Structure formats: C-alpha cells, structure tokens
Amino acid sequence: MRAFDYEALAERTWDTDILNLVAKLHEHKGRQALYARTKPVELERLVEIARIQSTEASNKIEGIVTTGTRMRQLFAEKTTPRNRDEREIMGYRDVLNTIHESFPYIPVRPSYILQLHRNLFRQAGLTFGGAFKSVQNYINETRTDGTVVTRFVPVAPYETPEAMERLCDAYAQAAASERVDALLLIPAFICDFLCIHPFNDGNGRMSRLLTLLLLYRHGYDVGKYVSIERQIERTKDLYYDALAASDAGWHDGTSDPTPFIRYTLRVLLACYVELEERLGAPAGAEDTAYDVVRRWVGTTLGRFVAADVVEQCPSVGRSSALAALKRLAEEGHITRHGKGRGTYYTRTERD
To answer: Which residue of 17, 60, 97, 101 is most buried, as measured by CB atoms within 10 A?
Structure first.
C-alpha cells in the first residue's frame, strides 16, 4: 500500500515560483486581520455571495446544475428541491455551512470525513453517503474521437479504510511538527485524497470541501468571501491537467505533487487578489489602474477576455482597464489572440 510521508516535503528544494507564491500568500494572510477590523460590513456582505457561488460552481464541475434563479430561491428557502440535482446542491450547501461555522471543531480524521460525506448526500436520500466505496472506481478520460480510456485506477475498496487512516495520520503528524508550510501540505493531502478516491460518488466535491476546511484551520479565510470553487470551475481544464501530472507514478511512490501544489497556490492567490480588489487596497496603498490589472493578470490561469478584467478589477474603470491591457500586451506580459469579439488574452510564460 502507498505510504504517506508529508514531512519529506520539508526536505525538498522547491522551484522559485512556488516559493514566491507561498510568500505572496503569507502577505495576503497577514492583511486579513486588517480587513476584519476595518471592513467587517463589506466582508459580511461577501459571505452569502461566496456560499452561493461555491455551491453552484463545485456541483457544476460534476455536471450537477440548476438555474441561477432556482439557486437563489433555494438558498433563500423560498422553495424546496424538486429533483436529485437540487437535493445534492443543497447537501453541498449544508456541509459548506458546517465547515464555515464549525471548522475549529472538525479534525481531519476518517470518521469526520465520513460524517461530512453522509451530510453531503443526506437530502438526496442516497444510502452510500457516509460510507467508503464498495466497488472499484476508475478515473476515465474521454478522448477527442469519443473513446474512453482509464487514466488512473484508485485504491481498491478493501484497502480504502486503511489508506484513509494512514493519510490522515500523516497529515496530522506533519501539521503538528510545523516543519512543512500549510500551503504545501494542504494540496499534497488533497492530491492523495483524490488518488485514493475513497467514495462511490462525491470525491471531487469532498476534495473541495476538505480544501476549505484545511485552509480555515490554518488561518486562510479567503474562501469565506471569494469562492475558491468558482475559480477552480473557471479553470477546470488546468485543474485536471495538474492532477493528471501529479498522480503519475502514485501507486509506486514516484509521483510528484508539484503541479497540483502550483495550481492550488495560483487559485488561492487569484482569490486573495479578487478579495482585495473588491474591498479596496489596504490603508496606505496607492495602486494605479495598471498596477491593479497587472497584479490580477499575474494570478490568472488560462485564457481571459477584457470583460473578465473589468469584472475582477472593480476599483478600475472600464477605459482604464482596457488601457492597462493594451500596455501589458505591448510590454509582452500578456499575449493577445484573435480579433474583435473573439479577442482573448493569455499570460506569457516568462511572467
């Protein structure tokens, strides 16, 4: 069976970009207390928006959807779920609320993970909720010609309970030693969780809920105010690519979690940038429109369009945002593709 040793992460030499991402996230975490003191009303307003977006996005990744109108009505308790999709969506909302409100009291142990999984499917009335998988599952990939191939075979059902015990023990040991930065430990744990794939259904949703739980327990609160799940849903191709790159050789212990760690750190940084753009820069900071747009672009994954910049940088006017995009393209920080309404941008590799 695969062994888990997260303390080995402390002995690794990390790429410069990983270390820079960790340093930037430490800075953002340090500003959380300032925002909590100076803008509590604004933060509170963001909480409900983020909960709706998180619930919608995390389920959408799995093909579980409803309309935006129905989503708002369900959250406002002005209607009741009318099909299985909506019941599963409300189950996610329930678990998300539990994590938001009680994360200090939810240890990372198999029994608690099983309880969260049970609650995820409680409204849907599905009997496999709260139990580890009973049949072998597979990670399949659909190719462009329509053929389906098995890309990864997770842990067998009979090995799953012990694998989850070892996984949680290794996490607890590394967290207690404080030798490994939580920003490296958390995505490494989540990557292993997804490779175990411990449930018949709900593994992806549980991985995102556990990500929030672990971040909150380590003091990274951004997911309360900006939806991490929404950022993942918007970049899900990169998410799956990073996971595929990290699970190669997993069973024989030769896998490298770096791609998934890098992806997770970029997602978190994008969320922190979005939060600070919504709230305004900390006291004493005087960023220009160009500074604001370049900082956002620096955390963006994949392609984006001008409308994304206008939406994600609300402190910058539309004309200023477009001017900043033009300058960034001229300076080579981003590359423009297409023309007219089909125009989109990507970040250059050197940035």
So the answer is: 60
Asked if the model's pLDDT at residue 270 lies above 60, the reply is yes
Those residues whose C-beta lies under 8 Å from the C-beta of residue 136, and which sit 6 or more positions away, are 153, 154, 156, 157
pLDDT 10s digits, 221-239: 999 999 999 999 999 999 9
Nearest to 86 by CA among 100, 72, 98: 72
The Cα 47–Cα 61 span in angstroms is: 21
**What angle separates helix 40-61 from helix 84-102, to the nearest 10 degrees?**
140
> Please, are residues 223 and 46 in contact by the beta-carbon 8 Å criterion?
no
What length is written for the chain?
A: 351
Walk me through the domains of the chain, giving residue ranges and CATH numbers: 6-286 (1.10.3290.10), 289-351 (1.10.10.10)
Q: pLDDT tens digits for 156-202?
A: 999 999 999 999 999 999 999 999 999 999 999 999 999 999 999 99
The strand pairing partners of 196, in sequence order, are none
Distance CA 11, CA 277 (A): 36
SS3 assignment for the chain: CCCCCHHHHHHCCCCHHHHHHHHHHHHHHHHHHHHHHHCHHHHHHHHHHHHHHHHHHHHHHCCCCCCHHHHHHHHCCCCCCCCHHHHHHHHHHHHHHHHHHHHHHCCCCHHHHHHHHHHHHHCCCCCCCCCCCCCCCCEEEECCCCCEEEEECCCCHHHHHHHHHHHHHHHHHHHHHCCCCHHHHHHHHHHHHHHHCCCCCCHHHHHHHHHHHHHHHCCCCHHHCCCHHHHHHHCHHHHHHHHHHHHCCCCCCCCCCHHHHHHHHHHHHHHHHHHHHHHCCCCCCCCCHHHHHHHHHCCCCCCECHHHHHHHCCCCCHHHHHHHHHHHHHHCCEEEECCHHHCEEEECCCC
| pLDDT at position 94 over 90 | yes
